[in-house]
Every structure is written in C-alpha cells, then in structure tokens.
Amino acid sequence: MTSSSLSPRPVVGRTVLIAGATSAAGVAVADALCTAGATVIAVGSNEGRLQSLRDTVTDAVTYVCDLGDFSAVHELAAAVHAEHGAIDGLIHLVGGWRGGGGLTGQTDDDWDFLHSHVLTTLRNTTRAFNNDLLDSPAGRLAIVSSVTVENPAPGGANYASAKAAAETWTRAVGRGFATAESAAAAVIFVVRSLTGLEHELATRVVDLWDADAASVNNTRVRLGD
C-alpha cells in the first residue's frame, strides 16, 4: 500500500450542513459524510424526524429550523457559527412534488408550496452561508434537480419551473465562486426520481471533496445512468 493511499480524504474534518436532512436521501448523505470523517449538521423542520435521523446517524448534530423563513435561517447560521464555526459544505435536499391535472391543474397552492420548499429554502440557506463557502479551502454546494427541467410536461409545469429556478440560482452562486477565484464549487445533481438513488447521491456528495473545485463548479451531473 502506498503512502498516498493512506492519506485522509479531503472531506475529513469538513463541516457540512444538510438542509432537509430527514428524507431517505438526507439520512443516506448524512451517514456517508459521517462515515467519511466529516462533521454533519443535519437541519429539518420536525424534531421527531430529526430524532429518527440521530438514531441512525449517531454522530450527526441536528437543528430544527424553518428554512423558508430567512430570519430563522440567520438565527440558525449564528448558532452553527457559535457552536461549530464556519461550514465547508451545504447540501440542499429540501423539496417535494406537487403536480398533475394538466396545465389548468397547476394550482396556486401547489406553486406556493414548491416555490417555498424548492427555491426559497435554497435562496435563504445559500445567502446565509455564502461567505462560509467562499472562504472555505474546499467549499461545496449541491442541490438535486429533475430531468423535467429539460423536458417539462403540462402536468408538471409548476414543479419543473421551480426546479429550473433553483438550477439558475445555483449556477449564479457558482458564478460568484468562480469570479471570486474561490476554492468553492456549486454542483447540480439531476434525477428522474431520487427513489433508489440515495446511496449513489451520498457517494457522489462525498466525492465532491476529492475533485478540484474548478473541474466541478457549475456542472450538472445526471444520476442513475
């Protein structure tokens, strides 16, 4: 075995915040990051589901926060900074599906839900933690998007539009990383359905720290192929 193979992976010692951590994908990502040696901060809106995550990923630190409320996210950032310092990674997994009924079935209630969960939570968390990622020697932002952005259907127009907006926001964050000549990168993972791909997503998230920032910044990576 070579000395290089004994070197710790770059993710070791990084502090990574998972927004929307209580889904199956969030638990898988939290477990993979903890196993790889990262400090995981798991954020969700429900204490009961966070307790379930802690039962599975015992090393994870959890916070309850309404990520759709910008003032609450600022309070979260202050608490994280006071207790753990700056973060090196933000994995945004807040989402949810609403759709069906053709174009006329794209209701305002569904749009408000998707806009709040998919986009507003991303805007809030990236703004609150952007300086952390910019200043980190290995900052990483990742979101999960959908193939429907490329091929939207009338019954999923609300959903595809919200995901497209989230991708645009993420690319803007990545452009900011590049302009600042930061060692940070923003990555969009794309799925048809995340069900069954939780392990692949978790592996790909951990692998983000193995790659040079410039090589992965503003990339769109399809999972499940």
**Helical content class:** 40-55%
Compute the number of structural domains.
1
Q: Which structural category do the helix and sheet elements fall into?
A: alpha/beta
The first-level CATH class is given as Alpha Beta
Name the overall outline: globular
Number of strands: 7
Mean pLDDT across all amino acids: 96
> What is the CATH T-level topology?
Rossmann fold
Multimeric state of these chains? single chain
Q: How much of the residues is beta strand, in percent?
A: 15-25%
The run of helices and strands is EHEHEHEHEHEHHE
Sheet with most strands: 7 strands, parallel
Cα gyration radius (Å): 17 Å
* CATH superfamily placement: NAD(P)-binding Rossmann-like Domain
- Note poorly predicted spans: none
Q: Give the neighbour order of strands across the main sheet.
A: 3-2-1-4-5-6-7
CATH A-level architecture: 3-Layer(aba) Sandwich
Helix count equals 7
The N- to C-terminal Cα distance equals 32 Å
Structure write-up:
This protein is of the alpha/beta class and 225 residues long. The chain has a single domain (11-220), classed as 3-Layer(aba) Sandwich (Rossmann fold), CATH 3.40.50. The chain is 46% helix and 16% strand. It contains seven helices and seven strands, in the order E-H-E-H-E-H-E-H-E-H-E-H-H-E. It has a seven-stranded parallel beta sheet, with helices on both faces. Helix 1 (24-36) packs parallel to helix 6 (198-207) and helix 4 runs parallel beside helix 5. The radius of gyration is 17 Å and the shape is globular. The two termini are 32 Å apart. The model has no long low-confidence stretch (mean pLDDT 96).
